[in-house]
Amino acid sequence: MFQDLIDHGEYLLMSLVDLLESKRLHHCPILIVAHSLGGFIVKEAIRRAYRQTERAFRSFLKTLAGTILMGTPHSISLKHPKWENAALLPNIDAMGFRSVSMQQDDIQRLTRCSMDFDQATGLRILTLCEKKETKVRHRLASKKIMLVDKEFARTGSIDEEIIEIDSNHKNLCLVSENKDVLNFIDTVLGDARLRILKGSPVSDSEAEEWSDIGRGYCLFDDGESISNPTSGPERNTASATAGTSDLGYEIVPMPSPGYNPREVPNLPCHMIPITRNKDFYGRESILDEVDKHFFPSGISGHENSNNAKSFALCGPGGMGKTQIAAEYAHRCRESHKFDAIFWVYADEQSKISDGIGQIAINLKLIAEDSLDAMDPVITANQTKGWLANPVKNEDTNDEEADSQASWLIIFDNVDDLSVFDGFWPFDGPGCILITSRDTLAKDPAVLAKGGIDLGPFSAEEASTMIEKLTNRKDEDSRGVVERLGGLPLAISQMASVIIRNHLTFKEFNQVWDEKETHEDLLNADGSKVNANTYEKNLSTVWAIENLRHGKALLDVMAFLDPDIMQEYVLKAQSSSTLKHYPITASEFIRARTELLQTSLVSKDNTAQKLIVHRLVQDAARSKMEPAYYLSAFSAALELVCVSWPFEAFGWRHGVARWRRCEELFPHVLRLKSFGASLSVSTDTIDMNIKLCKLMNDAGWYYHETGHSLDAQPLIETAQMKAVSVMNSLPNLNLSLANADDICKQLNAIIAETHHNLGCIGTETNQPGLTLIHFKKFNEMMAQEVNETLQKTDNRLAISWNELGNAYMLNKMYLDGERCFKECLSVARQMSQFDPSEFSFPYVNLGLAFWLTGRLEQATETLLEGLQYRETRYGRDDQQSFITGRFLYALGNVTTSQGRLDVSFSYHQRALRQFHSTIGKTHHRTGDVHVRIARHYLRLEMLNEAKTHIDDALRIFGDRAAFRPEKARATFTKSEISLAEKDIERAERLRKESIQAYFELTGQAAVSGSDPVSTDFDELVAFWSR
Hints:
By secondary structure, this protein is an alpha/beta fold.
């Protein structure tokens, strides 16, 4: 059945091509829409069209505007759990369905169709997926199933947009009123019409007529105009790839990962996750001072200035800094003072990076579901570029004042001013509002150009506030104010307590005075607050111990990141046994409601996330007895572990889990901080092991995403803690069996940390560190994995490959070759050996042959390994960057063989493959840019050579780990400048690169023996040459 379905793709393609040819409709854009399994017909038709070279098929692709896939399954994994749902799709309209399972052959056919479509397509795709379950009947019973959810519908195409529809699968196609869908149709048809016009031999009058039609084109019946919100970077048109050289290959200039000022931003744009406080009171003078600083002449936010204005709100926690900033943001939104307002949590540098990157996504400078959206360097570049030149649309004149958008950014909780390293200052005609506990934040020599230290309310202001919040103007509130000391957060919290418990002000004073612990608060008066007393006072003000339903939930939240607490983490099914923690949905809602009502937490109005003040967390933890503290920490650790997408040890370089890891990573950092003091006892062994596993795996994720040096301390902490637990075992009263099991778990963690630290060494030019860790990893695996385990356990084979890498980095090429061969020898003893799973030793062995001058053996080995991958995943797959490594290595070997045209082709394929897997700013991508720049230099295409070498230098930047790569790229740029006859620049760059060379090698400069290009190749890792 499913093969017949796919075969109809050819019939659809031929029918469309025949229609275009017979009716001469080459000027008409085509949009193909498919529902459910019909999408496989469309995928096959498009795949076949991209494989054809005849003119008729090229004409068809030229007119193809895009496709809309409604609930079409898509996965390149044979083991995707939802493939069974595809068997239900043909019969969802029927009274019942046959209870059958998908055959493996059927799954392979659909998987292959999905994989081939991924490799072929380059057009705009709108994917619709259902949010409701579909009712299916079986005999006399029925059940509801989520047939094709977002993850099962996502194609992963760079130009894909995904919309979740509030519908079941059957009614998914009823979207004629959905403006997002209509907007997509309008955009792609308009883009296709312009593309056809640019390449069609029509008269001026016809072109003008069609252009007028395009400008007046509208899909909305109510006359509402549609802007063209192009998301993501400009796409390559046919003209970008039209020229073919005499050398027999296509030269495709690759775009720079920097900011494109012609993108059309999504304006107005407001990122304000803090819900407006309807009970906000006072601070009008503060708000006026902020406004006067930003607009000294009283003009609007459209002042034409390239210097961003900045203002800092400083003061201790709970003084109302965030609430003032939020109120100012909401007022500016109402009064349209700014075209764009952004809120960035700033207590950690990673949050600033994520927040700045999210701005580019919300402005639609980058498509949310694109690979670029996962790259923090690209998103940050796009954001900072737009902030510096905030154009409104691509048709305006940048010199006109009205052509630039006005913007406001709030950086909340900048308590450590060093988090701005690498980000500050910001340029552009905008304003920056900062909240910080550090009073230096308002010092122009340190950070903001102005600011103010917030103090508590006066007695009069505090009385007015408590009366307003409790709606009681006929009672004397002075006693309450005296007890709360004019602290805004304390007043807000106690107003909630008074209302909830139906207390008069007098009764509140009596209850307050009954507890001796409240006497400390009397040390804070309305004019002067001691920070230490303030924090202790707040812990009593919040009355956390009086919570009926939400205390356990709040106690767990006290150990997680305060700014972003995903509800799916808090509701995760875990083995936690913390007493009174909400287990059922109704219990969770009851607990959350109590915390929201008492203002102990707030809700992010953009998603299912909770926010809690740091001092509330401090107060909650300060009230815990030691045993309960451990239980609450254990519960928080368990919830994060259950939610974290752990990756089994092996050849791990997939990207599918990165989005979830990015969401949860701040929680790991918090748990690491609290776990530092975790002792080792029989009660805490399990906690220590879980924490070690989490830190190690999170560190590996961070290393994979290009943050190797930042990941190193996380993995080292996991290793040290695991070793500490191992050394403490003899002092604990454990049974022999239990101790043996714990030792096995700890040994596995320690071994994996050695592996991960070795990998970090390979990526950051630390050959000595790499050899130490990989030798230890190999020794541990040789001891643990016996001949029986070798049949199912690949860790020993992996250890030989990694030890080979260490030898290669230390230029011990024959030792490296021996290890790679041993890796493959051990792997072939496995009961289910699949050579495609052992691509790394193949590519590394090929490089060992190359570096020892055995070019034919190198070529044969590399092509053999690449063929195994292509057989399983298809040509130039996007499963992992390893395919790009094969292509890059083959490019290098064919260069050594003098087959320069073939080499260029391999290097171009490697660059495209790296772009689609590890992204445009990974250092391996920079390596390929250097090689391609050399090709263009050889071909005397100097503009293209400069573009690629500048991209490489931008990627390497000033990071210490990549000084060798930067030195090589700088030397190559000097050669390009020399070819341009720019002697002065060439000499300057040459001297800069040579100085770096001698610093890196430790050699003394000798007159007449300056390094050449091949010497710079020796500086970098063997796979980067």
